[in-house]
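Each lists chain and fold; for instance:
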Amino acid sequence: MAVNGIVGKSAEIESFLEKGSEHGSVILIVDDELINATILKNMLSTDYQCILASSGQEAVAICEDTHIDLVLLDMHMPGMNGVDVCTSLKKRARTRSIPVIFVTGSDEIETQNQCWEAGATDFLLKPVVLSTLLHRVSNHLLNKRRIELLQSLIYKDQLTGIYNRYYFNNELPRLLRQVVRDKGNVCAVMLDIDLFKKYNDTYGHVAGDEVISGVSQAIQKALRRPTDSAIRFGGEEFVLFLPYTGASGGQRVVEKVLQAVSQLQIEHALSPHGIVTVSAGIYAAPADENTALDDLISNADEGLYEAKENGRNRLVNKSDISTMA
C-alpha cells in the first residue's frame, strides 16, 4: 500500500504520522495585540500547546531556542513585522521547516505576494473562522509530520537513530553557512570507539552493534541544544557538529560523552581500561567565508589520532583554547 509515496505503511510509520497532529504539537502565536493572540490561543488550546509572542524579535528567539511545530503570525507589527519574521525564520537552518501561517486583515494581492515571497505556508483572514483555523492548522501539522518522516528515512542511520553520512554531506554545509552569516564560532568533533575491531572479534558483531547503539545514545544525551548534530560517520566513528560553540564549550560536551560512555560499563577484556571507551579530537574556530567543513573535520581528526596515540579514552583539543570562549 502506498501512502504519499511511501510504500508499505508500517505500524511505525502510522504511529509517526498520528502522534504529531493533535497531541503535543506546539504552536507559536505572534501578535503585538494581546487580545488577538489570546483569542487564537483559546481557539486552539484544547488540542495544542500554545506559546504567545508579542513582537517579531521575541518570536525569532523562541523559534531558535524552543521546539515549535507551527507559527501563526500577525502581518502588521511595530519594529520587526510579519514578513521580516518569516524571512528570518526561513533563512535559518534550525527554523526554516516550521510552517508559517499569516493572520491578516488585508486581502490585497501585493500584501499576499510579500508573504509568499517571504516563505509563507498559508493565510488566514481576520476575523478568523474557528473551523477554518482548526482544519488548516491540522493539515499543515500533518504535512510537517510527513516531511519529517521522509527526512528521518533519508537522514537517519537505521542502527543508531542518529544522523548518517548523507545528512553530513547535504545538511551540514547549510548549517555552516548559517554560522558564517551570523559570524559565530563552530566546533567539530571526531569520536571513535576504542579497539572496536578487537571487541567485534571477541564478542561478535551482534554485540558490536549493541555497543555502537549504546554509544550513540550516550552521545545524544550529552547534546543538549537542538542545533547540535551527532552523525554516524562510518562504522564505529562519529562526528559531532556544534554550531555557535567555541573550543572550551566543545570540550565540555566531549567530556560528558566520555564520561557517559564509561558509565555504561560495557565489558571489553582486550581494552587496558577493561570497558568500552571512546577517544575524541576537537577543533573549533570562528566561522568566516574561508571556513570549510572538510578542514574542520580534518583538524578534529588530527586530534583523534593523537588521542589514540596517547592511550585512548581521552580527548585532544586542537583549537587555540586561549583565544576562544
Observations:
- Residues 1-13, 16-22 have pLDDT under 50 and may be disordered.
- The longest strand covers residues 185-193.
